[in-house]
Amino acid sequence: DIILKSSTDHELKGLEADVYNLKGSIDWIIGENSKAIDCYTKSLIGCLEMNYLKGIGNSYNNLGMVYSELGENDSAISYYNKSMIIRDETGDMKSLSSSYMNIGTYYFEIGNLPLSLTYYFKSLKIDQELGYEEDIAMVLSNIGLVYSEQKDFDRAIEYFYKSIEIDQKHDVKLGVFTSVLNIANVYQKENKLEKA
């Protein structure tokens, strides 16, 4: 609070925006969504005043995540799209991949599986170009979930195994566990209980 109260001149505006963004993330994690929205909005305002594009993109993305969790789909996709546009314009490819992932998840959650796949594959392409293997594993698993929902079970299992291979290489136990569980769910959907 002392930093926030004393941060009035232009040199400290960036710090103030970052602090509000961090506080918003903490509030969101503990389920204080209205406080998170307030902090992310304050961060956004500070970033807009300074024309701090990376911060603007992050604030839009974070607002999208909160609104998505609240089921306010129109607000969520609006903020996700604003974030995506800024991240694309600034060439922040890592963050752009994250935006694509969030938009893909948004479309998965509302049942628009073709658009979900489109955005997941955009995220995958960037992650592969950047060599972020742990992010690649996550998006491969999400692609597997879409194929499972589309009842393309062979393709779903193929993507889950690709994800497992990368997660095992990096000792990401939760990722391995999640993909193994997803494979079991596919076998259950196929009535192949001996494999599940």
List the keywords.
196 residues; mainly alpha; 0% strand
Structure description:
By secondary structure, this protein is an all-alpha fold. 84% of the residues lie in helices and 0% in strands. The model has no long low-confidence stretch (mean pLDDT 93).
**What fraction of residues sit in β-strands?**
under 5%
What's the end-to-end separation, in Å? 52 Å
Note the run of SSEs as H and E: HHHHHHHHHH
The poorly predicted ranges are none
Shape: elongated
Helix content: over 70%
Subunit organisation of the chains: single chain
Major beta sheet summary:
none
- How many β-strand stretches? 0
Structural class: mainly alpha
Radius of gyration: 19 Å
Please tell me the overall pLDDT: 93
Number of helices: 10
Concise account of the structure shown:
By secondary structure, the chain is mainly alpha-helical. Helices cover 84% and strands 0% of the residues.
Secondary structure: elements and pairs:
Blueprint: H1 2-6, H2 10-29, H3 33-50, H4 53-69, H5 73-90, H6 93-109, H7 113-130, H8 133-149, H9 153-169, H10 173-189
